Structures are given as C-alpha cells and as structure tokens.
Amino acid sequence: MAKEVLIEFQNITKTFGAVVANNNVSMQIFQGEILSVLGENGCGKTTLMNMLAGIYYPDGGKILIRGKEAHIHSPKTAFSYRIGMIHQHFKLIDVFTAAENVVLGVKNGSKYNLKDVKKRIGEMCDRYGFHINPDKKIYEMSVSEKQTVEIIKVLYRGADILILDEPTAVLTPQEISKLFDVLRAMRNDGKSIIIITHKLNEVMEISDRVAVLRKGEHIGTVKTSETSEQALTEMMVGKKITLNIDRTKVENPADRLFVNGLNYTNSEHVKVLDNISFVARSGEILGIAGIAGSGQRELLEAIAGLQPLDSGEIIFHRPKKDLPVSFYHKTLKQVIELAAEGKFHYADGTPVDLSGKSKKEIRRLVNEEKILFNEDEIMNLRDKTPLQIRELGVRLSFVPEDRLGMGLVGNMDIIDNMMLRSYRKGNSILLNRKKPENLADQIVKGLEVVTPDLHTPVRRLSGGNVQKVLVGREISMAPKVLMAAYPVRGLDINSSYLIYNLLNKQKEEGVAVIFVGEDLDVLMGLCDRILVINSGRVTGIVDARTVTKEEVGLLMTKTDAGKEKRDEKENG
Amino acid sequence: MKKKTADRSTAPEQEPTQSGVKSRFELPFHIVKRPHIAPWKKILIYAIALVGGMLLSSLICAVFSKNGKNPLDFFGQLFNGSFGTPRKSWLLFLETALLLGASIALIPAFKMKFWNLGGNGQILMGCLCAYSCSYWLGGKMPDGLLLLVMFATSVAAGILWALIPALFKAVFGTNETLFTLMMNYVAAGVVLYFRSAWIKNGSGQFPTLDHGILPSLDKYSAALTVFVFFVLTVLMFVYLRYSKHGYEISVVGESMNTAKYVGIDVKKVVIRTMILSGAIAGMVGFFLIARTGAGLSDTSPNNMGFTGIMTSWLAGFNPLLMFLSCFFIAFLTRGMTQVRTDFGFTNSSVANIVIGLIYFCVISCTFFVNYKIVFRGKSGEKTDLDRKLANQVRGVK
Amino acid sequence: MLVTFLIGAISLGTVLLYGCMGETLMEKSGHLNLGIPGIMCMGTAGGCLGIELYLKGLADPAAANWFLLILLSILFSILFSVSAGLIYGFLTVTLRCNQNITGLAITTFGSGLAQFVMDTYVTRKGFGAAGKLISRGFVNDPNANGVLRVFFSHGFFVYFAIILAVIFTFVLNRTRVGLHLRSVGENPATADADGVNVTAYKYGSILIGSAVAGFGGLFYIMDYLKGSWENASTIEAFGWLAIALVIFALWKPNYSIFGSILFGGLSIAAFVLKGSSTQKELLKLLPYIITVLVLVFTSIRKKRENQPPASLGLSYFREDR
C-alpha cells in the first residue's frame, strides 16, 4: 500500500522553559490512514499535535505539508491547510444549537442560512454515519453528541486531516464503537486521522499505524498489523529506571481506611467511580496509578468529603479496643454521650457509668486513662463534610491536585494559608496568627521554602515552593491518613525528592499514605502497594516491590474484555 | 488539559491555500497580565491618574468658566470650598463620615465578590424606619428610648433589604447585581407610598422631626456622626483583617473551591455577611435622619449607595484606605460647590462632570496596574509566551 | 379613557424600549452597562442641542422642516451618546476595567454633562412647536376612531423604536452577525478561537446600543413632554427602569416591545386610573417588583435560554484562558 505522504515532521523540538516537551521528533503521516499517537501522560503527544493545529509553534525543526514547508501560527492557519483538531475539552457554546455551533465563525461568503447548514450537516451524517439532531442545544447533549458536533464542525470547515485528542476518554463502549465506525468511514473517504491516546486495545482496533512517544522523544512508528499490545507497552513505558528513594519496610501495618463499593455517575452520565474498593493501611504508602482522568480526583475528593457519591461507604477505623479514651479525639460531651451508650469499660472489665459524676471527675478519669474502649472505633465518612470529618476527630490530610485553586489561596500570604485548616480553633472571634506564624516559619525553614518573607502571597512562589507550603501544612496536622494527588507534578528533581522523603517519613510514623502519581518509576520506587485504576474501576492491586512496569502499564490501559461483554448484555 | 490558543495576532482573512502563508500582520506590542506590581509603582500610577484627572478638570472648568477664571483658581476654590470656614470643614468631615458608613456597609460583600448595588435602598429603608418611629412615636415615649427604637428598627430594615437578595443568591444563585439594583427602586417606591399615605397636607413632603434627634456635640451636629463612623471603619478593618469571619469572607471571595475544601459553609457566610452589610447601611440611614431630625425623601441616601461602591473600589476594599478615598470624594463634592459659584456656573451639574472625569482617570489606570504593555522584541518573545501558557496548562504558576 | 391610557402607555413605553434595546444589545456582547442612565441623558442633551442649533437659524420655529428636525436631532443625539459609549467601551473592552464601576462613573458623568449642556446651551426657544412637529402622527384628530388613534397617532420615534426592535430580533436570531454577537457574550474564548473578532463585536454592540439608548431620552423630552425639560434625574430614572426591563424581557428585543408597553402603562396608570394617590404609588412600584419576580423565577427554573449571557460582566483577555 504505497500511500502519499501528507505531513512530515522534521526534527521538531519544543521546550517550555526547562521542560523539553518534544525533542527532535521526525515522523510522517500518510493520506487516508488512521494513525495513533501513543504514549503516557506528559510524553509530549498532545504538544506535538498542538503544533500541527496551530496552538503552539515549534522552537526547532520543520513541518512539511505535501512536501512544502508550512508555518502554522494559529488554528486559522491550520484550517487553511485543512487541518482540524478536536480537543479534549470541547469548545462549544452551550445555549446554541448544534447547527449554530457548526457554522460559528465560518465566513465563506455565502449567505447565512441555517437551513443550508442543516442540510450540509445531514449530508455529512449520511456520508460518515453520524447521528445528530442539528436543532438540539449543546447543553441538552451527551458527551458523545458534543464530540460529534466538534467533529462535524471541523469537517464543515473542510478539514482533510483530523486530530482527535483522547476521543474515547469520556465515551461508553457503545459510543466508542460508533465513533470508530465513523472514523473508518472518513478514512475510506480519503481523510487522514490522528488519534492521541494511551489505550492499547483501541490502538490495536482502530489504527493502521502507531507512533509511540516517550518522554518527548519519538520511539518509533510501527504498523498495527505487525505489532502486539505487549510490544507497544514496552515501547511506551521503556526500561525500568531505579530511583534513589529510600523505601523502608512496612512496620506493623493496621487497616486504617476501608473504601467499599464507591459508585459515582456524573451529570454527563459517565460512570466516574465504578464500584471501587480497597483498604489503606497505616505505615504504608498506597500508590494509585492510572491514566489521567480515570477517577483519581473524584476518589480522593470523595474520601475528603468533597464529592457526593451514589453508593458505597468510607470507613475510618481507629484501633481503640481496650485502649483509653483521650481528649485528643473526643470532647468531654462526646465522652459522656459514648459512656451513656455503653461504649466504655474500666480496666477490670466493669462497664463505665458516668451518670452522676462531676465534669471534673470525668476529666480526671479520662486523663488518668482509666476509661477504656470496648471496641475499635468505626466511623463512616460518607456524606460527611470536611468540617464534620474533623469534628469526628478524624485527622485526614489532603494535598489536592489543584494547589492554588483548592489547597491554598493564591492571594493570601503563607501565614494566612497556614490557618486555612486550623483557624476555627478556640472560642475567640478573632484569629490567632501567632501559631500559624510559627508554623509557617518552621515550614519555610524546615522545607527550605524560597520566599522573600512569610507575608508573600503564595501565588508569587514557584511551583515547588507552593507545594512545600501545602504539603508542610497538611503534614503539620499530624494526620492519620494523608492523601496526595500528583504532589510532584511540575516540580524539579530536588523538590520532588523532598516530597518523597516527607511522604516516607509520614509512613514511618504510622500514617496511611495514599499517593496518586503519574510516573510509574516513582510509583514503583516509592509505594508499597499500587492500586491501578482504569476508567473508574480498580483493575488490580499489586505489590510495588515485585510488579513489572509492563504489568502496571497493561492494567492501566487495557480495557477488561469481560466488562465490555457485560455492558453489552446490560444495554442490549 | 485546558484549551489554550496561543495565536495572539490577527491573521488576515485567507482563502484555504496549500502553498503556504503570506506575511502576517502583527501589532508592534501586546498586552500581558502583571503577576505582581511593586507598591510604589501602584501608588505612582494612581497618583498620576488623580493628578491628571484634577488637571483635566481644572482646564475644562477654566475653559467653560463664565468669568475668565484660570486653572489655578480651580484648586484654590476647591480648598476654599472644603476648608474655608470651620463650618465648611465640619461639613466636609460629616460628608466623609457618612460616605465611610456607606462604604463599610458595602465592603464585606464586595470582598466576598457579592456585587451589592443595593446600598441606596438599604440606607433608605433605614431612613424610613428611623423617620416613621419618630413620626408616630415621638412625644409618646422618652426621647432616649425613642432613639433606641429608631436605631433598632433602622438596622432591622437595612438587614431585611440586604437579606432578601442574599437568601435568593445563596439558595437559587439569583443574580445579585440586578436583584440588589431593583431593591433600590422598590425602597424608593415604598417611601413614596408612605409619603402619600401619611402626608395629607398640601406640601406633600415629610416634615422635619421634633423628636428622636441625636444630641449635638458641636455647632453643626456633625461630631457624633463623624466619631461613630470613623470608629466603625476602624472596627471594620479589624473585623475583616483579624476576625475569623473576615478570614472566611476572604477565602470565599478568593476561591469557592478552597472554601469547600476547608469546610466553610458558603451559604452561611453569604447570608451572615449580607446581614452585617444591611445592618450598617440601616445605621447610616438612622444617622441621616436622627442627626438633625431631617425630613425624609426618596432621595435621602443622596446616592451614597453608588458613591460608596466607587469609594470602596478606589480603596481596593481596604477600610483604612477608605478614609482617603471617602475624604477625597467628599472633598471634591464640597469643593466643587465653591468652584461652581466662583466660576459662574449656574448649576450644580459641573460637580458631577468633574467627579465623573476623575473616576474615568482612576478607573482606566487600573489597566496599567493589572496589565503591562510589552513591545515585541525580535525572537524569543513567542517562546516566552508559550512557556507561560504551558505553565498554566500544567498548573504551574 | 382606555384609548388615552393605551396611547400614553405606548408613548412612555417607547422611552423604556429605546433604553432597553440599547442595554440588551450590550448585554448580548457580555457587557452589563450601568451607564445606560447617563448615556440616555447624553443622547437627550445632544438631540436637544441639535434642535436648538437648527431652530436658531430659522425665523419661525413653526416653519421647521419635519425631516430636517428629526435628522438633526438623531445625528446630534448619536454624537453625544456614542461618545459616552466610546468612553465606556474603551475602558471596559480595551482597558478591561470593571464594568459596574465604569458604568456608574458614566452615569455620574453623563447626567452631569447633560444637565450642564441643557442649562447652558439650550434655551428651548421654539421647542414647543418643534415638539409638536416631532410628535405628529398619521392620525392627529383627537376625535378619530379610538383604535386608529392607539395605533397611528404616534410620532416618528415610536414607530422607529418598534422597527428597530424587530430588526434587532431578526439580526440577533437570524443572521451571522447576530450569531457571532451572541457567541461573544456567551463564551468569548470559543468565539475567538472560531475566528470571531471579539473586540469588534463588543465595540460595535456598545456603540450601536449607546446610540439607540440615547434616542430614549430625546424622545421623552421632544415627543412625550413636547419640548419641556425638567432635569437629568428624570431621565436617569428611566434608564434604571430600562435595565429592569431587559431582565423582564429575558434579553429578547421582541419581548421588550410588550414589556415596555406594560411598564409604561404601570408608570402612567397613576395619572389615568381612578383611585387614591396612595394606591397609585403602589402601582408605580410594580415594574420593579415584577422584574425581581422574573429574576427569581428564571433563576429557580434555570432554563438555559432565559439566563443572562454567560460571560455578562466579565472582561475578556485572550491569554487568560
């Protein structure tokens, strides 16, 4: 099959500051083929395609289109080369109809007539097998319909080369197979299609050729018919790199957090969390691996009390059987209430009856550790707000992915950001800035945060320093469970290691650490167990010390065949 | 990854071509957001804007002056009008104090990014309640008690007027800008309704009051009001800067997500803050009436609800800086009355023109505070911008 | 009596209709312009100045030419209101300043300047005659058939307003320009990426909207009041009511025709209806209360078509995305 070379990348290099997104990439795209661009998160595949779509401009190298050098400065220029890109986040106007969105910005000299537009949309639908109601408003549409509108929008502008960025990430298996039918129809019509993806089974199913990128470099392009999932995974993840992280042995692990059957379907009817269950143990780091957007954020936010759930429970387990109650977790009022419920006994086994005892007396009993729990404490955190979780005495720290938008307030200084979690303490209506100031000072000194002073708004600090402030604050709460989502994203090597060491130290102190990461080498070097999540489902929990990179890679990318069959059955 | 488009030049209309791209038109400069500005630069920009606005105003006044005055006279008369006599000075401070009252009523809501345009209505409802209590109950109870009742009802009315839009905002997300704006006219209508219901004699105006007048500490009955609102402004500064409530307001205003993350009940904060806003506005209304026992009208708040928006915005929502902004606006208003007579203008509208012009200058200077104009260098420029965009994409700021 | 009432309602409603159409146009491009009252004042002052200059050159004001009178008043009105709009546009679009603050400043400035111009340069000599001429309709006989009078006794500006409202509705819903304008108000980033010139559309809608709003004040003085002048604050009040009408009409110019007649009717009901003056005061409150109810109702129902444009009040900076 001798096909015409349509696009050729020649030694394309693109850097963002110190980060090299693409390094010396050379590859070709043929007319009338489906090419998959495969790679892990952050391997530079989207950046490379963005240069073709006019969003970025290469720092070095050339792009040739039909053999001639092309300068693609803007999406508009890209369109003049008949290149159209469908981004992961759709650029549609919600209150407009499909037809209105399709025709928006098109100035082809013809009269504005929605009827003609609809007719042309109908023609395209017939030609490629789409189904769309051009009068339907975008906000009434499912994700898949919105995607269809985006594709039509690009086709309407006359694109011959379509780039789709993770087109299947948010689709159901049925919708995926429909999309693939459409893509095949377009290929047979002579169009070239580029799919950016990291799902191996889809790569195998749809594409004619696969280009694999790893850490910004083009590893190779192979014909799909001449390769296997195994071979592609190896190209994608590369050889295991041993990192210099001191991983200590897990000492006395105890079950700390039970997550049972979490389910959550979002407003777009996508099942984001699908029956997720696992146990986090004290004194170990549980890594969560998965392609970005597989439900990691929702999972952590659900545990932190920020994400409502459809079903399931989050049980916090406090091993207190035959151990004394303390004012560390319980207020005096709570102690009295629990005693009334018969939850305590004395050392000699007799039940505790506090009725008739004075507050002073009760305080003394508690402080002398005379009152012991009958059973371990079990608390369900589901549907509790972050405040209620704290009032239960559950010390749960959470380093969210969005540092300045959620974990910290960018315009506030370091001291005020220290108070975010603790400002409520005490009965005074005024803030106490003394303690946060000391804490800020400790963190700045202890973690070597580079800042002019403690009164600098955190948004002015560099990424690594922002993260040190956030992690420092969360650790300062002496948590029992510490969750960190992508805590080293965007950080330099030194800062990253500092964060790893902090997490390791927490583990040694008996904290149950949950670490969501994207770099498999880090996950395998830092964690004790790795939970692999794929499209909202747990596809495996593996021992980080013995597992191979390929095994994790496959668990992350491979869609479970059994599940697809089940879905098909359910949906007829 | 968020959608980002880095084309920042207006590419000319092009027919689809296969051969390449013609030369592109680019502006010689482009605008970038400033991540940070040094305080002295900020002060300098504001100072230039203010001075520029004043100079422009003085020139315009001189050009249109009926009796050939020059721009220097403008400044002289401005000072003369505000500080010329002890009475003028007292009235200047009184005006400053009332404006401060209106501004501190609005500021907590603004810090929370709740656009309360209903200051006029909230103040007017305070006026109405203070006035009605004195009108109906005056003479029937001791004046001291009457003042207390007036005060309490004014505050309650202010709260009510602020609370209604706040509740709808908190529960249904109703647009507060438009809602509070409408509440101003409802309040004015309510006052006119009572005027026509109660005042049956020919004048058709609310008479001045004999009862429920605050004790006068000075010749112009200004000192008490000045004292109260100056103190309140300092208290408001403390509340916003040093109290837990103030802290919550800042967090809600800065980032809803962070507020949720740390477990702040956003609805509660919105409602609580608007109650505070309304209470202070109601109090301003009380002082407007009870200071001298003034008659009531639908324009009693003297547009302070809107002027207060300008002053608190000028002060960057910092109560202490509001001493400056309110004083400045009061100074302009008072001074312009003198400029007007001296320059031979027949009507008071000149003051509005001048204040409007100065507003324009100050408003436009915020552009230079927030943005920076960068002239296109040779190469490297684009990469720099690309990096910034990419950093945004990656969440690295 | 009903005839008089309807004529009055349509007439006063026209003042609001102009203001409302102007504001709607701007809000469609994402600009909440609280300067509308000031812009309406500016339009009034400009239009009156134009008429003054024209009448000055005439020996007998009664001999004024209808066409020239209308043309000059419109041109001068546009000159004034568009310069106010230009200030607003420059500050909010180019300099990306806060829209609420800028709008309030425009209102302060515009009402002040209008008052100054009217008091200083407009003597209003012959305005009575000019007013009569401008307000002359097709049917001017007070004894004519009531239905005819309701529909055909109005001056040029009433029909002009309704024609404009119909044109705006058509343009907004049926043309490419309208589609692009709405996209700018809904999601400027998307519009920009699709090649819509966001800045041009914003300026265009602000300037045209200002011109249209300015006619409202001019109409009020020259047609409704037949050339008499009270003060700028009356026109300012109409400006605020016009902003209320935008919400009431759910950002749709065709709805605003009927909304304006309703609001106009409620405003003059006090003069026409029997009943105590107290009850009439309550009647005057109704437009605002109805507006609040509409606002609350639409926010509860959350029907997407009836919401304000999504980026209303926000500045657009391309690199912010």
Can you put this structure into words, describing what you see?
- The complex is a heterotrimer of chains A (572), B (397) and C (321).
- By secondary structure, chain A is of the alpha/beta class.
- Chain A has 4 domains: 5-237, P-loop containing nucleotide triphosphate hydrolases (Rossmann fold); 253-319 and 384-395 and 479-572, Rossmann fold (3-Layer(aba) Sandwich); 321-375, no CATH class; 407-477, no CATH class.
- In chain A, strand 1 (5-16) and strand 2 (19-30) form a beta hairpin.
- The two termini of chain A are 38 Å apart.
- The model of chain A is unreliable at 561-572 (pLDDT under 50).
- Chain B is an all-alpha fold and 397 residues long.
- Chain B has helices at residues 39-64, 71-83, 86-111, 119-137, 143-172, 176-198, 223-242, 244-254, 256-261, 266-290, 304-314, 319-343, 349-370, 381-394, and strands at 29-33, 371-375.
- By secondary structure, chain C is mainly α.
- Chain C is 75% helix and 0% strand.
- In chain C, helix 1 packs parallel to helix 6 (146-152) and helix 11 runs parallel beside helix 13.
- Chains A and B meet through strand 5, helix 2, helix 12 and helix 13 of A and helix 8, helix 9 and helix 14 of B.
Whole-number average pLDDT of chain A? 86
Q: What's the domain count of chain A?
A: 4
Task: Bin the helical content of chain A.
Answer: 25-40%
Number of helices of chain B: 14
Note poorly predicted spans of chain B. Answer: 1-24, 378-397
Alpha carbon gyration radius of chain B: 25 Å
Instruction: Show unreliable segments of chain A.
Output: 561-572
| Percent of residues in beta strands of chain A | 15-25%
| Class inferred from helices and paired strands of chain A | alpha/beta
Chain pair with largest interface = A-B, 74 and 48 residues
- CATH H level of the largest domain in chain A: which superfamily? P-loop containing nucleotide triphosphate hydrolases
What keyword list fits this structure?
heterotrimer, A: alpha/beta, Rossmann fold, 6-stranded mixed beta sheet, 20 helices, 24% strand, elongated, B: 397 residues, mainly alpha, ABC transporter involved in vitamin B12 uptake, BtuC, 2 domains, 14 helices
Secondary-structure map:
The complex is a heterotrimer of chains A (572), B (397) and C (321).
Chain A: E1 5-16, E2 19-30, E3 34-38, H1 45-52, E4 60-65, E5 68-69, H2 75-80, E6 83-86, H3 98-103, H4 114-128, H5 143-156, E7 161-165, H6 173-188, E8 192-197, H7 200-206, E9 209-214, E10 217-223, H8 229-237, E11 255-265, E12 271-281, E13 284-289, H9 296-304, E14 311-318, H10 332-340, E15 344-345, H11 359-367, E16 372-373, E17 377-380, H12 386-391, E18 396-399, H13 403-407, H14 414-419, H15 434-446, H16 463-476, E19 481-485, H17 493-508, E20 512-516, H18 520-526, E21 529-534, E22 537-543, H19 549-557, H20 561-570
Parallel strand pairs in A: 3-8, 3-9, 6-7, 7-8, 13-20, 13-21, 18-19, 19-20
Antiparallel strand pairs in A: 1-2, 1-4, 4-5, 9-10, 11-12, 11-14, 14-17, 15-16, 21-22
Helix pairs in contact in A: 8-19, 15-16, 16-17
Chain B: E1 29-33, H1 39-64, H2 71-83, H3 86-111, H4 119-137, H5 143-172, H6 176-198, H7 223-242, H8 244-254, H9 256-261, H10 266-290, H11 304-314, H12 319-343, H13 349-370, E2 371-375, H14 381-394
Antiparallel strand pairs in B: 1-2
Helix pairs in contact in B: 1-2, 1-13, 2-12, 3-7, 3-8, 3-10, 3-11, 3-12, 4-5, 4-6, 4-10, 4-11, 5-6, 5-10, 7-8, 7-12, 8-10, 11-12, 12-13
Chain C: H1 2-28, H2 36-56, H3 66-94, H4 99-121, H5 127-134, H6 146-152, H7 156-174, H8 176-186, H9 188-193, H10 198-224, H11 232-248, H12 253-272, H13 277-301
Helix pairs in contact in C: 1-6, 1-7, 1-10, 1-11, 1-12, 2-3, 2-4, 2-10, 2-11, 3-4, 3-10, 5-10, 7-8, 7-12, 11-12, 11-13, 12-13
